[in-house]
Amino acid sequence: MAQYFDVHPENPQVRLLKQAVGLLERGEILAVPTDSSYALVCHLDDKAAVDRVRQIRGVNERHLLTLLCRDLSELANYARVDNRQYRLLKSATPGPFTFILEATREVPRRVSHPQRKTIGLRVPDHRVLQELLALHGAPLLATTLIPPHETHPLSDAQEIRDRFEHEIGGVIGGTCPSEPTTVIDLTPMGTGGEAVVVRRGRGDLAALGL
């Protein structure tokens, strides 16, 4: 059965989050609350875990996965960002936005788009998740927790544990909305174009002037 971590939303217990990090380091998948909805996360460099995440979600290699980063300085290690893109990123992070950017060589080929060599990146505005990222010491690979053949993300920790108890290693308890992130493709900006809104979600586009 998936381990359940009853973590305080404002003062998360480091002891519990360290146990969760230990599961990630052993190749397990976690369900974690974010500032949009629950997400499945795993270690970036664990191919077997990445494959299981796709299997749980029911998606193939063309489905863009997302790197959860602690801040923009960490994001810059995995994506090529020019001045225009950086200004937009700075105005929107941390927050419920996912940005599609050109991937650097630091991103394993198996997690970037197989044709475009792009990657989704975001900096979440969620205390528990930020603490987990800090203790892990590196970005986590993530995807919104939408079960196969369903359209809405899950937001209830106990329901997630009941439905995926044999497929994931743990669930971090918490409260979060039940709406996916707003997805914005910034790659056209790299050649003088404009940002393209791929999906409207919880992130407020007006705050970005889009």
Spatial separation of the terminal alpha carbons: 44 Å
CATH superfamily, by name, is: DHBP synthase
Structural class: alpha/beta
- Roughly how many Å is the radius of gyration? 16 Å
Helix amount: 25-40%
CATH architecture: Alpha-Beta Complex
Quickly count the domains: 1
Question: What pattern of helices and strands is seen along the backbone?
Answer: EHEEHEHEHEEHEHEEE
Tell me the β content: 15-25%
What does this structure look like?
There is one protein chain. The protein has 210 residues and is α/β, with parallel strands linked by helices. It has one domain (3-208): DHBP synthase (Alpha-Beta Complex), CATH 3.90.870. Helix content is 26%, strand content 21%. It has helices spanning 14-25, 47-57, 72-75, 83-92, 127-136, 157-164; strands at 3-5, 30-32, 39-43, 66-68, 79-80, 97-103, 118-122, 140-144, 170-172, 182-185, 196-199. Strands 1, 2, 3, 4, 5, 6, 7, 8, 9, 10 and 11 form an eleven-stranded mixed beta sheet that branches. A hairpin with a 6-residue loop joins strand 2 and strand 3 (39-43). The longest helix is centred in the first third of the chain and has 12 residues, at 14-25. The protein is globular and about 50 Å long. The N and C termini lie far apart (44 Å). The model has no long low-confidence stretch (mean pLDDT 90).
Labels describing this entry:
11 strands; DHBP synthase; 210 residues; alpha/beta
